Amino acid sequence: MVGEQSPHSHTAAPPRSGLELTERQQNVLRAVVEDYVLSAVPVGSRALVDRYRLLVSSATVRSAMAELEALGLLSHPHTSAGRVPSDLGYRVYVESLMREASLDRSDQLMIRHQFSQVQLTSNEWLRLAASILAGSTRSAAVVTPAKARRARFGHLQLVELGDQTRLAVLVLADGNVVQRRLDRAVLDRTMAGEPLGQADLDGAAATINADLAGLTGPQIRRRAAKLTGLAAHAAEVVASLVEDADTVAVEEVFTDGIGNVLEQPEFAEGAKLRGVLEVLQRSDFLEQLVPVLARRGGVTVIIGHENANDAMHEVSLVFAPYGAPDGALGLLGVLGPTRMPYPRAIPTVRYLATLMNELITSHHGGDA
Amino acid sequence: MVGEQSPHSHTAAPPRSGLELTERQQNVLRAVVEDYVLSAVPVGSRALVDRYRLLVSSATVRSAMAELEALGLLSHPHTSAGRVPSDLGYRVYVESLMREASLDRSDQLMIRHQFSQVQLTSNEWLRLAASILAGSTRSAAVVTPAKARRARFGHLQLVELGDQTRLAVLVLADGNVVQRRLDRAVLDRTMAGEPLGQADLDGAAATINADLAGLTGPQIRRRAAKLTGLAAHAAEVVASLVEDADTVAVEEVFTDGIGNVLEQPEFAEGAKLRGVLEVLQRSDFLEQLVPVLARRGGVTVIIGHENANDAMHEVSLVFAPYGAPDGALGLLGVLGPTRMPYPRAIPTVRYLATLMNELITSHHGGDA
DNA sequence: ATTGGCACTCTCACCCTGAGAGTGCCAACG
DNA sequence: CGTTGGCACTCTCAGGGTGAGAGTGCCAAT
């Protein structure tokens, strides 16, 4: 199970100490971030005192802004434009300025209700999770299935398909199910031409289930050497299936709400998103994220340049791991411009991660 | 199996007769389409005679263009701009002007090689198909798994999971596998408190396998009424699983290469794609496409406004069905601006559909 | 029927300009 | 001494005008 840390610790980097802001600086930074998130327009000192009750004049705000800029928390598109938060500004905001509300009770119930409508078998519920995340945060959502980091064998069934093939159905210890179609020749070559019946298959499966439960791929391979005949071959197949489950860590990614991001002014020229989509869809980007998220637990926020990947320098991620007690681990979260409504996104991601933990746990050991 | 029709019949609408073009008009239209597809810039009479050996003067081309415009095959962004093909113009081009080359032998081999690298179990190969399509046509690719239109029962296994649940693994007649976790109570309530063992489960499964093979959901429901005890309940479960497989026709959609489309100038303002993505991801759009494609067989091209869906008025689809002999049916194809390289896209889609037919057939009855 | 020529149209890139917004600084004030 | 009003300055942005270029449509000549 994934633990929840203190709510105020979304950093990927260590908490920056020694950065003391005055009360006023904090208020100004908060106002700038919140205004800019809403309007997408650089915000000036005048607009700020008008829209937020800062109780000081615009000149004062200006000097506070200048200080914040010197600290690297705000930046200037050009001389006579308003201020825009820098990545670091967002960071400080997320870390200590944001007033993070938890999800409405009614929203929570609505989400729960939607999950109750859908079969937890098959990946339909992951799609649902992505859809809910996307709709609720107006950003792009990403959800990956929960997979054990180290796959262990659970249970094997060999099924006669009545033609040239057989089906091996393998239940992993974490509850995931994998299957592989086997050419008849694979199992039969041990028998001297004698056709195998379902009874033979069941026998071999029984041997294997008794011998190999709870073992990892390599362990099975070692044991297989001591077996003979049909069971030995079946064990080889099991070993390779278990190992496959190990290596294919993030095989499917469910995304939703890409259109939401396309609507944001920062991605008005669609080509800007291209790199992001590519990274998301093709590479091992999310896979590299898994250990980071798992180590930190809870919700992690990665803002703009904090992201190691160049293509992601203009987006923020708000992600959390979810998983089963035995360590099967999945990811879920949202992706949007750095100008993202963090106070909305973070609780939503947190709630959904918690919910999926619950679902996966109550359904025993996970299902995906 | 999906039949191949004559290569020149990509229309969704009936072939338009009575539209006789002179040789010259045909040459001009072809040149306009091909130039515009490459350049994305409205093409003028002068540029045309320069770039293509039309052997006439620009004035002559101008009059031919005017004729084509009167026929509704070309259009004018504004008075002094070049011509652009209309949807109908593309239609005529695709129907009778295009010189459609089949795929390079080397491309074919490369694609085949990539497929040989991947397990056909799990949906990994669908992802691969989408990736190949997207890469090869520089458009967005869409692939859906092959699903039987009318699901029929094949084989059932009941597996004891050793805790509060059991797993029903069901092989459909078309080779697809579905599973559902069962709460212990579901099966046990027929037995007067007496715990069930794997032997009992096997017995019930055997009864059901003998009785229900090849039946549809409703048929199974009727038979279930005549069964008693454990088998009756198991049959209910089987019926509902089979019916589920019926209704969830297109449950997963694999897309790739959305970035390719974002790069096209017609979608430079990313928001334009938003509607398209939404339709593609959320709605039953593809499901409605299934019967159309299945009826026509082979590659179907749907250009701009020919598409019933408003959101799709600025894109073209080049799609084909693929499937197993027993009728399991999937879709695959590409989506791009109407200004699409049809002579490249069509053979690629056709080849991939053929290839997937082969793969699915040789692996017996399909796998997804 | 085809062509060269010519007048006409429309876009686009460019420049200029004025309005507006916002800053930075400073002197004055409580 | 922190805060404030004032003011000069800077920069963007929208709007309007202009000239070049591309392309058309038409017509008279071949």
Fold and architecture overview:
The structure is a homodimer of 368-residue chains. Chain A has 14 helices and 10 strands. The radius of gyration of chain A is 26 Å and the shape is elongated. The longest helix of chain A has 21 residues. In chain A, a hairpin with a 4-residue loop joins strand 4 and strand 5. Helices cover 47% and strands 15% of the residues of chain A. In chain A, helix 2 packs across helix 3 and helix 9 packs antiparallel against helix 10. In chain A, strands 7-3-10-9-8 form a 5-stranded antiparallel sheet. In chain A, strands 4-5-6 form a 3-stranded antiparallel sheet. Chain A is α+β, with helices and mostly antiparallel strands. The two termini of chain A are 16 Å apart. Chain A binds a DNA duplex (30 and 30 nucleotides) through helix 2 and helix 3.
Give the oligomeric state of the chains in this entry, treating copies of one chain as homo and distinct chains as hetero.
homodimer
Number of strands of chain A: 10
What is the helical fraction of chain A, as a range of percent?
Answer: 40-55%
Helix-strand makeup class of chain A: alpha+beta
So what's the overall shape of chain A? elongated
Q: Tell me the strand percentage band of chain A.
A: 15-25%
Integer-rounded radius of gyration of chain A: 26 Å
Which two chains form the greatest contact, residue counts included?
A-B, 53 and 53 residues
**Main sheet record of chain A:** 5 strands, antiparallel
Q: Average pLDDT value of chain A?
A: 84
Low-pLDDT stretches of chain A are 1-8, 12-17
